[in-house]
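Schema walk-through. Below, the input block comes first and the output block second. Nothing else is stored per chain. Lengths vary across the set, and this one has 124 residues.
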Amino acid sequence: MALRFGPEDEEGFYAAADALARRYETVRGDGLGRVIEWILQLKWSYLDGDLAAWSRADVDTILFDLYPAKSVLSPGDFEDVIRGFAGWLRFLAAEGLVADEVESERLAPAGRAQRRGLRARHGG
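--- output ---
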């Protein structure tokens, strides 16, 4: 399955994003597929469109710039966003779609400062 999509490949992106979110839900079973779908949408729409390549800059941009600016979150959703993103990066590593889990460490439960920053941007 292709995991890199240009801005004109809407059909390919949505088919792959849906398949990835369903696979994530099957494997992880954490009920956060909706978070994964939105993260993938942001990556495709505003970053490089490579759904398997995640840099620290990508993670920061989505969590602290794009997610707050492009979504409406209730206070209870903050933890889901962090857990979903961390789960997504771990899922990619476990599926062999990325080289390792280095980036998921950035979103580990010890990352309270990141969660506070996300809450502050949403007024939570």
